[in-house]
Amino acid sequence: MSDLWIFRAVARLGSITAAAAQLHVTQGAVSQRVLRLEQRLGVNLFTREHTGVRLTASGGLLARSMDDVSASLQSALTQIQRLERRALVVSCSPSVATEWLMPNLRGFYREYPDVELQVRAEMTTPSVAWMDAEGVDVLIDYGHTAVEGVHELARVQEYTLPVCSPELRRRLDEAGDTLVDVELLHDSAAWPEPFGSIANEWQEWMAVRGPVPGVNVIAERRFNLASLAYQTAIYGEGIALGRIVSVQRLLESGELVAAVDADLVSSASHRVLAREPAGTDARADRFVQWLTESLQQTQQDSARRLGVVPR
Asked: Among 31, 60, 122, 241, which is disulfide-ready with 55 (CB 3.0 to 4.6 Å)?
């Protein structure tokens, strides 16, 4: 059975390399399992090509059968889990999970003590196939455009503002007309999909506000998580572009402050995605309602603290 599931991954992705990456095993292990399955069946399931693999007639028949098996198993497991009142599985980026969701989650449990959540922090491109395979009920994603194939239950517009350590802000204020050498700190994976000619959050912010006033950019540092950029800014190493939801806790603690006196600039949106439409699962509906209201309240609190308005 394990060989069959590995075969299905290769068939769906059309690549042994891609299947190995998805399954978190080596390429050689996937190749060996596929070859073993072919030897057991006495047929070739794939035609090997330079760009990947292509299903043979026998391989196509087996792949369709495995899709039917997977759908049947998923349906049965979903019904069993619902009968057992399993936890609602929520996936979101590590930055959102650590900087916002976990510090605020007790508010959800106070309001809905009968709903149990299983929160997973992970980086992924949203798709029904991935959510089905991983058993994810709700995915909190971040981006500009709609995601095909999944149900968007809610969308909360996000806003950004340059943030830095209090010490760096003091240096900027005291410099007057003299430019201060700083590093710009980037989240290099802010959103998964292309967004026109806008390559990153800093480019998006500067398209509205222009260059960061009072600074001479000497370097640009890139991280794969926004939280890493924020932590680097806390250490006084540069200016990060903060999403006001994610930096709210750091602003409250005083670890970060606004780097410039400027209005907030609209950016991507927190997209709440699900495999099933709204109204299918009461637990998901409750969580989405709480999530939307809490995100918006956080934004209002951050904007009030900063003395700025969304733009």
From this structure: 60
